[in-house]
Amino acid sequence: MSVSAPRSDTQLVSMQAISKQYPGCLANDAVDLNLGAGEIHALLGENGAGKSTLVKILYGLLQCDSGHIEWNGERVNIASPAVARDLGIAMVFQHFSLFDSLTVLENIALGMAVDADATLHLRIREVSERYGLPLDPDRSVYTLSVGERQRIEIVRCLLQDPRLLIMDEPTSVLTPQEVNELFVTLKRLASEGVAILYISHKLDEIKALCDKATILRDGKRVASADPAVESARSLAALMMGDELSDVEPRSSSAIDTAIMQLSKLNYPASDSTGISIQDVNLELKQGELLGIAGVAGNGQDELLRLIAGEVMPSGGSSIVVKGLDITNSGAGVRRTQGLCCVPEERLGHAAVPSMSLTENVLLTAHHRMSMTSLGLVSKAASRRFANEIIEKFNVQCSGPDAMASSLSGGNLQKFIVGREILQNPDVLVVSQPTWGVDAGAAAAIHKALRALAASGSAVLVISQDLDELMQLCDRISALCAGRLSQTYPTSEVTVQQVGLLMGGAALEAST
Amino acid sequence: MIRLQPRAMPSKLMGYLAPVIALCLTLLSGLILFALLGVPIGEAFHAFFIEPVSTLYGLSELGVKAAPLILIGVGLSIGFRAQVWNIGAEGQLILGGICGGAVALYFYEVEAWYVLPLMMLAGVIGGMLWAAIPALLKTRFNANEILTSLMLTYVAGLLLSFLVHGALRDPDGYNFPESRLFHDAALLPVIMEGTRLHIGAIVAVFVVVAGWVLLSRTMLGFALKVNGAAPRAGAYAGFGQKRLIWFSLLFTGGLAGLAGLFEVAGPIGQLLPTISPGYGFTAIIVAFLGRLHPVGVLFAGLVMALSYLGGESAQITLNLPVAVTGVFQGLLLFFLLATDVLINFKIVRNVRRQL
Prior knowledge:
The complex is a heterodimer of chains A (511) and B (355). Chain A is an alpha/beta fold. Chain A has 16 helices and 23 strands. In chain A, helix 3 (104-112) packs across helix 5 (146-158) and helix 11 runs parallel beside helix 13 (409-421). The radius of gyration of chain A is 24 Å and the shape is globular. With 355 residues, chain B is mostly helical. Chain B has one domain (40-319): ABC transporter involved in vitamin B12 uptake, BtuC. Chain B has 14 helices and 2 strands; from the N terminus they run E-H-H-H-H-H-H-H-H-H-H-H-H-H-H-E. In chain B, helix 4 runs antiparallel to helix 5 (115-141). The longest helix of chain B is centred in the last third of the chain and has 28 residues, at 241-268. Chain B starts with a strand and ends in a 6-residue tail after the last strand.
């Protein structure tokens, strides 16, 4: 196969007609990608568009079925990440691979297979100072924030003098302030001639940072665009393939009647890496949408499990729903009292992957919906409810007998959120409702949450996506290291101020 | 070259077919083994698989051996669905035999209708108590139930041996390590005249149906399945995990205890130092061969019962060692585990990748 590629001479890396087939899914379909030195190039696409597959091929983690890669105009076979590193390709993954109990220095030494000696110590200090990535080589990793952990990964890459740096959704775990710092570093690297391949689906970031963008949809490259010229809206249209519906203006339906009160909620961490929930106080009013912002790993999961009744808080805590103290009640009693929850993790927590949608309905709906007769489960009833969810929430699937694991992330999330909303709860607590969900499904979920609040229920949204919360919620607060900040009306705070709350700082009195 | 390729979806067909393929492969390798030993294949096949079931008596014996396997297999398959790995059903069976047998000996020469029901109750309770130990250790101290239940099996065996050498020994038995023969009121009624087929077989069928309903139609069965497939989803739904561990172990323990009582009050009729040819362990194979489904367990129990009878028959007619039963059971489990790969993978010819 010889493809004439006139531009490839000037390119640092050129991926040509890359295809990769997975069982039951064509992840990449003849995708081209060209990247020059010093260029910050966005790889844009919805979840499942094939971004990760493409960069994994570039980094040698996967082999393509057809197509080839040129590096500096020469054809190369990147058989493994070691080959990629030798070429000068480095990658910062979305999920870090660090040992919590080791120091920064030891972690970096392990990753590079060198000794953790004074030379490395010096080089880490050099690199971190040069690029504005403050990092103490002697700190243990478990004492660091997520942003600091990401710095370790970046420094580890930079120590190898890379010519191409791949970053997989690096900002999903950062506060707005940390994002700004990261962008300064990346721009500095680019000015020194390092090419950066930046994977994201956050359009404003791409507009702020990138020189070029390649947009993937359903495994195909649909467009190359200049982010400076395109609007966020036109980029989104390219990414999703159809027109976006406008966001409805938010009008609060909150009534000043408390429906759920959390007071002095405490929960000690179960192990050294867990987060303790400390003294959380919160009052949720009828008809309101309340957002809890926060960087991942600050106790969101623990808080949700406490409210859902999966774990029990320590003494002195109290959870009251509609006047009934349910502090020591199990998940079933809480649902009967009108408190429904949607945990963050779809597969394995909110749904059983190997079971059908009909069975997954039974998981939570049997408490509030009548699904048993004479002590026996009524398959017809749960099937009916599954069908109702599929229809009302437009869930794309082969029917109520489809296995939960066979649905795409967005469709499964619509199903799970639908399952809880259609039970008509008085309080719905939902964690990361649109994490890893395509924009169409996210819009549908937001609309449904608004409608639920408008009908008089209270909705508590725990999310890392600050834009989502600012757009959706009436009031907002932030969770940092297991402590909940004060709540503020979203109309009265800025993104920067919430960023401060997410970092654990208190706002000045009255904004 | 051939290689395994992951399937997009687990194959339902293979789920049913895998045990059948495993059976065929077991048969094939068994016959090759016989050929290597110099035994005529035709005779060996006949002795092992045909002869035991060619008479009515043979068929009734199949029921006698299958009943305990099915009773325990149903219990195990429900526990295994919930990822509770009770490997000690053999010990629970022995305790059922001891407790039920002790009641029979206590009411020796009492001619009353209530003796047998009391024995059954004692058998069930004995098995449950023995299974309660791993349940307690698991829920309280997070001790692995595989180890605790397995080790307790040996304790149970020694306890039985201790009792028939001591407290429960037949006073007129010339110091032989065995109890008195149970009185008529303490023996299970026989279903078919002239055979040893007892009401345990009917109970086993009833348990199959009950287990089926439990798994497919009750909230408890659903909770057990969810707990096995996705424990965090179980916690989210509010199914108490500890409760399910207790239920799984006590349920299997009770059924194993009942099977043990049926052995001593049925075919054996007294307490001996050994009351089971490893039914509790073989039932593990039965559970997996039956796809952890009560109805599957029914068929698998009959197949495994045949391996016991075939082994005996091969000993008598072909002078083969008793180990042949174990060899067949082992081969079957081995092939079953191997063919289960086909549920999630398919075999494809390796085509060289074109670059």
